[in-house]
Fold Cytochrome P450 2F2-like.
Amino acid sequence: MVLSLVLLWVCTCLLLFLVRTRRPKNFPPGPQPMPIFGNLLQLNLENPIKDLIKLSDQYGKVFSIYFGSRPAVIITGMDAMKEALVTKAVDFAGRPDGLLLSHLTQGKGIIMAHYGTSWREHRRFALMTLRNFGLGKQSMEQRILGEVSYVSDHLEKHAGELIDPQTLFHNASCDIICSIMFGSRYEYEHEFFQAMIKMMAENSKIANGPWGMIYDTMPLLRNLPLPFQTALKDYHTVKMYVLDIVNEHRASRTPNKPRDVIDGYLDEMDKRGEDSAPFEEDQMLTMLLDLLFAGTDTTSNTIRAAVLYLMAYPDIQERCHQEIDSVLNGKEAPSFEDRHHMPFVQAVIHESQRAASTLPLSVFHCTTKDTELTGYQIPKNTLVIQNLSSVLFEEKQWKHPHGFHPDNFLNEQGEFEKPPAFMPFSIGPRTCLGEGLARMELYLILTTLLLRFQFIWPEGAGEPDFTPVYGVTQAPRPYKMMVKLRRK
């Protein structure tokens, strides 16, 4: 009797699963999902990018897989990406519920906020505030160059020694955005500062890694003491640190004379009065953490990737040195405007972004209404994943789609030229908020360091390994480097 009931329960569960995972009419095709897991077991959870490319080869540029019983549409290649994120931008501008990242942020802030009035107002506020505090201006240049001086001092002090650049570049990128948001930089050993660095590095690996996928796929496991609990705990810890900083600002600020982003947000709340929605404290805290993440992880990981490529290809590094020396002609530091006279350096930086593919699957989207993509019908609230790596390495879009080739960004006259398939920060209305700051940081930091130092791959370290560590932001594998001083 008991065995019969168990068999009946199993059959019922399987039947319900098959009904729930039956693809709707004219939905993008894809592999048959398995009970409970969906297509999770058909992906390499350490890094699913190659598996997604294979599935695209089999099922087309727009196909579907299942996370448990939840369908997800995968977008591959530039043409499909542009149709979804530019031509039909509003249709695909939503953010999904029920994922680890959406639970971390509770749908607030900017990155994981639902498409709508609150998201538009907060994104507009963030971009306006960044501009007010110098983005694209000389004041921001000085802020970045000031932080680079700390990096340069560290490298000069340890010239000729083995150096681990991971923490160094994370610290610098994080301190730049901290100075904009909190009005001051932090010593690299500061408790709060190190907690932020740790949270961003760990949560990036967890959120799109194996444990993040398990969290997203199997809700029954979410309360178990598994590694994704670390992400939730660390996020809350840093959020409480930021709340303390906000409370300090409340006590010391002068209204309408903002020192930083926090003061600007408090001014906005005052201006709106008692009914300040959607500007309120929890939204502010999440937005500040969004800016921290957007302004730190992508930039620092791209710098580490660029340095790795420069060491692996010393002839490319030497050509950068020659161009920088020629253009700066004795100047102590570059300006952002100097980039227009450095086509090869610009090409190297952009090729580093392309080859590193720092945001391989961007941030997951969802549809805001019933829509269509490349002839397929996609219902409202469908999870959508854009495979940005597929565009950055697409055969027909690049002269050299594989490996590291700055010529991808140079025309026949040797001038810098950015192909339309260059979209490392995604495209459309939800393109990465930190892109403008990242562009300025990448150029000024790398050019300043190349002016003063030669990066050297250590003897006996074997061949450089370009295989990335997968996560929301993809990072180079840890490595050691050496530097040689070129000029004071």
